[in-house]
Amino acid sequence: MTGADTSEERLSWRVEGMDCPSCAAKVEKAVARLPGVHSPRLNFTAERLSLALAEGTRAEILAGQVESSLAALGYQAHRLPAPRPRPGPQAHDPAPDHQHGHDHVGEATCRAHAPGHSHTGCEHAGHDHTGHNHTGHDHVGHDKAGTAHPPHGHAHDDAQAAGAHNHGGLAHAHSHDDPAEAGLPLWRTAKARLLAGIGLVALLGWLLANLFPGAAEWIYAAATLIAVFPFARRAFALALAGSPFSIETLMVVAALGAAAIGAAGEAMTVVFLFALGELLEGVAAGRARAGIQSLVALMPRSALRLDAAGNTTEIPAADLAEGDRVLVRPGERVPADGIIEEGRSALDESPVTGESIPVPRGPGEPVVAGSIATDGALRLRVTRAGEDSTLARIAALVAEASASRGRAQRFVERFANWWTPGAMAVAALTILVPPLLLGGDWSVWLYRGLALLLVACPCALVISVPAAMASGLSAGARHGLLVKGGAALEAIGGARTIAFDKTGTLTEGRPRLTDLVPAGTEAEDDLLALAAAVESGSAHPLARAITEAAATRGLAIPEARAAGAIPGKAVTARIGTRQAGIGSIAWAEAETATLPTPLATRRDALQAEGKTVSALVADGRLLALLALRDEPRADAAEAIATLKRQGVATVMLTGDNPRTATAIAAQLGLEARAGLLPEDKLREIAALKSAGPVAMVGDGINDAPALAAASTGIAMGGGTEAALEAADAALLHGRVTGVAELVALSRDTLRNIRQNVGIAVGLKALFLVTTLAGITGLWPAILADTGATVLVTLNALRLLAWKPARA
């Protein structure tokens, strides 16, 4: 039904028994014929069917009709509850205002600010920042607004196309195992029993034919009729459901036709090989689907919920709710996303991020569902549970991504639409033309035409792309590379240029103390302790960088009294008997004297490296210079070098000042384009796209316009809401080398697709020629169909073992 009047309600089912993407087309087609159904969508990989209700349609009545219709076709449909709305991203409170002056060189000095006060000149190296506030600024000429943008929209194929492959008008309806058989050994499944039964019939036919040679053809014909009956019944049901040219129909016609012309023994072989092929197809498809569904299996089934008294109760993990407190013992998986309230442990987060090294976590830090507490017990407060957890959302995104169609898949489907009628036309011409025009033997050419009918099904060709895409997407997700669809996975590998944001992408996103230059003979540790004491009351990133440096050295920080601020210039405090302050160079020179030449030279050198330089003053004397910078990520230079080896050009697009950008770019080995407003970045990306596809890498929070403008947007992030939603791909582990890994994964997946298409088309073309030439017959033709499908699927499954070079 295609009426425009629909209700807002959607119904969803899990459909069991589908063995190949063409099954999805058959299900979609059957459901679409029901009155009251609008926009049916079926995701083959996720086994999920959803549809909208036409206006005035009663949900319960339509649900019963859908389930009955699918049951008649051999599928089991299990109704799913309506999804709950997911909570939005958490708001972040701005940091307390903190005023003091620095000579700011670098985007990091502006990054964490919340809107509220005017801030100009943040991007100019070596300038004194009059009126500078570390929190609450409007960033003039800056691209880091500190606010989350809505997800951008790249052009993707609608999920309605997911898994809906028409095989050139053919529906491919395999035998469908009962859901109760899930987890049974292969030999106990319905398909295995059917194959065993057909094999037994064939064996009895062979024995009887040897005992009664004169009746061999009749015996084989009877055996063929018995063996083909289950497929004939299914072919008839498919024809009534609107799919008269299914592979079952073609196989039944070919087998019965062969028996009729005296090739019953070969017809029996065709039926047996067809049943064998279906069994192998089901196994291969199940393994491909399991590759994605294994992400969900990483979630623990149960959880230990804590009550107010601290007692634990074991409950299903799915029953956890936001605000619950849970206990995670050493060696157990975390059952839900949460915040640690008590305890410390090294967490193995590889199920979510692909990071193999456990990460130490303690009170106040977040944890994600599916991670493993390796060496300590934790008490958590649940923030997201069940289908809202990060791992569940990743699994859902991967399943949805596997349903989207890229350019390769659309091309293959168009080719399949041409191949099937073309091959059937050739089969008809083969049967008719030689006997009618050339005096050929009707039985010979009928035999060859029947064999060509079996070559006509493009099952292997149609599954060649989605099988590889699903495996590639699943492999990437297990290594922290989340790609949201086949189109994006194809595009990443074809990018000519990759543009990077600087702050939080190529750099760590927070400043660090890099240099402390004493002005006299006082020890560095004493100077750092004094500076940390002055900054101890501030939560500003620059202040934290100084206090963290002191903590790293294990220094005792003196108590600060009478803390104050000189707006835009410095912060001050009384430390013991000394009146100390940290501020800009201009403020320090006004308080003391002009910098000595050696210190002035050192200041200029530090600023040339893109660093923010401040001065430590006490009792009217300049004590030291402190240099801070948002340092490049440890793997950034390696990532850029790897991309260059892959033949990809790289460029940094940043709102930071040219001096800082040039310093960072020189250190990492890429081109820098600095001082860019957000609209400038869009123009730069448009210019780059004129030379070929462009990928943009940002932090997934503040770079939405640039991510949307690029051919492909890639977000850095540790599984945050913004990182998951804002781009076409997300690097969950936050490593810059993940960009090169994405390129490698994309190219390996495309190589696998080319191999699959070569196998499918090559085998079909080979058997088309050899069948026409009379070299091969019926059973090689069915082998070409089912065998090619199995080979293509198994080749695609190799991608599940894909690992990035680092691993």
From TrEMBL:
What SUPFAM superfamilies does the record point to? Calcium ATPase, transduction domain A, Calcium ATPase, transmembrane domain M, HAD-like, HMA, heavy metal-associated domain
Gene3D superfamilies to which the protein is assigned, alphabetical: 3.30.70.100, Calcium-transporting ATPase, cytoplasmic domain N (3.40.1110.10), Calcium-transporting ATPase, cytoplasmic transduction domain A (2.70.150.10), HAD superfamily/HAD-like (3.40.50.1000)
List all Low complexity biased stretches: 160-172
Keyword Cell membrane (UniProt): yes
Which residue numbers delimit the HMA domain?
9-78
* Ranges of Basic and acidic residues composition bias in the record: 94-106, 120-146
From the Swiss-Prot or TrEMBL record, what is one GO molecular function term? cadmium ion transmembrane transporter activity
Catalytic activity from the UniProt record = Zn(2+)(in) + ATP + H2O = Zn(2+)(out) + ADP + phosphate + H(+)
- Which is a Pfam family this sequence falls into? Hydrolase
Keyword Cell membrane among record annotations: yes
Topology with respect to the bilayer = Multi-pass membrane protein
Keywords associated with the record: ATP-binding, Cell membrane, Membrane, Metal-binding, Nucleotide-binding, Translocase, Transmembrane, Transmembrane helix
The family database entries (InterPro entries) matched by this protein are listed as: ATPase_P-typ_cyto_dom_N (IPR023299), ATPase_P-typ_P_site (IPR018303), ATPase_P-typ_TM_dom_sf (IPR023298), ATPase_P-typ_transduc_dom_A_sf (IPR008250), ATPase_P-type_domA (IPR059000), Cation_Transport_ATPase_IB (IPR051014), HAD-like_sf (IPR036412), HAD_sf (IPR023214)
Positions of the region Disordered?
A: 79-178
GO cellular-component terms in the record? Answer: plasma membrane
| PANTHER family (UniProt xref) | CADMIUM/ZINC-TRANSPORTING ATPASE HMA2-RELATED, CADMIUM_ZINC-TRANSPORTING ATPASE HMA4-RELATED
The text of the family note is: Belongs to the cation transport ATPase (P-type) (TC 3.A.3) family. Type IB subfamily.
Task: List the protein's name.
Answer: P-type Zn(2+) transporter
What is the organism field in this record?
Roseomonas gilardii
Q: What lineage does the source organism belong to?
A: Bacteria, Pseudomonadati, Pseudomonadota, Alphaproteobacteria, Acetobacterales
